[in-house]
């Protein structure tokens, strides 16, 4: 069985390495964790373009506006959106209903 290849590493199946996974040092773990933002950025970009090609448009929040971006590059402002709300961990709050016409 061939190793599974991904963009940043080659992963050996457990039975090919004698059933013992490679031990990670603290430094190697930190190096791997440092790559997570880059992986996430790539995943978001792929999802964005995949959605754009499959449906022809994507909704995005841009500078306090809800914007519809089309595959041909045109953008349409749908409406203004509220500023982000800071919430403490464990806090509970109740959302108010909004008119569908707003």
Structure description:
- This protein has 102 residues and is an alpha+beta fold.
- It is built from two helices and five strands.
- It has helices at residues 26-34, 36-55; strands spanning 4-5, 10-11, 57-62, 65-70, 75-80.
- Strand 4 (65-70) and strand 5 (75-80) form a beta hairpin.
- The radius of gyration is 22 Å and the shape is flat.
Average pLDDT works out at 81
**Approximate shape:** flat
Radius of gyration: 22 Å
Residue windows where pLDDT falls under 50 for at least 5 positions = 1-6
What keyword list fits this structure?
102 residues; alpha+beta; three-stranded antiparallel beta sheet; two-stranded antiparallel ribbon; flat
Entry summary:
The chain has helices spanning 26-34, 36-55, and strands spanning 4-5, 10-11, 57-62, 65-70, 75-80.
Topology:
Layout (H helix, E strand, L loop, with lengths): L3 E2 L4 E2 L14 H9 L1 H20 L1 E6 L2 E6 L4 E6 L22
Antiparallel strand pairs: 1-2, 3-4, 4-5
């Amino acid at each position: 069985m061939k190793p599974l290849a991904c963009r940043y590493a080659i992963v050996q199946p457990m039975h090919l390495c004698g059933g013992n996974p490679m031990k990670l040092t603290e430094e190697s773990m930190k190096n791997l964790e440092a790559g997570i933002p880059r992986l996430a950025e790539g995943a978001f970009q792929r999802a964005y373009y995949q959605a754009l090609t499959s449906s022809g448009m994507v909704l995005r929040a841009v500078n306090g506006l809800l914007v519809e971006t089309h595959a041909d590059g045109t953008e349409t402002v749908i409406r203004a959106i509220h500023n982000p709300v800071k919430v403490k961990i464990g806090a509970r709050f109740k959302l108010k209903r909004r008119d569908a016409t707003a």
